[in-house]
Design a protein that fits this description.
Blueprint lengths: L15 H15 L16 H11 L4 E6 L2 E6 L1
C-alpha cells in the first residue's frame, strides 16, 4: 500500500477520491451548472478539513455549509 497523498496547503491525506469529486463539482459550477456536495461521516475523519479545502477552491462562488446541524453560509 502506498503513502497517502498530502495536500500541501491543508495537509489532507488519503482524500484523492473526495478531492476528485470536489473538482468535478467545481468544474460544473464554472461551466454554469449548479451542484451540491454532501460530506458526511463519523466524527474526526476530516470532514471539516475537506469542507475548508472546498471553500478555498471555490473562491469567487457563493458557498454554504451545514455542520453539526447548524447552518453556516459564506458569500464569496
Amino acid at each position: 500500500m502506498g503513502v497517502p497523498a498530502i495536500d500541501a496547503q491543508l495537509g489532507l491525506q488519503g482524500r484523492e477520491k473526495e478531492m476528485a469529486a470536489l473538482e468535478r463539482v467545481l468544474a460544473m459550477a464554472r461551466s454554469g451548472t449548479s451542484a451540491v456536495l454532501v460530506v458526511g461521516g463519523e466524527p474526526g475523519i476530516g470532514k471539516t478539513a475537506l469542507l475548508d479545502h472546498a471553500a478555498a477552491r471555490a473562491a469567487g462562488f457563493c458557498t454554504a455549509a451545514i455542520a453539526s446541524g447548524t447552518w453556516h453560509s459564506r458569500w464569496a
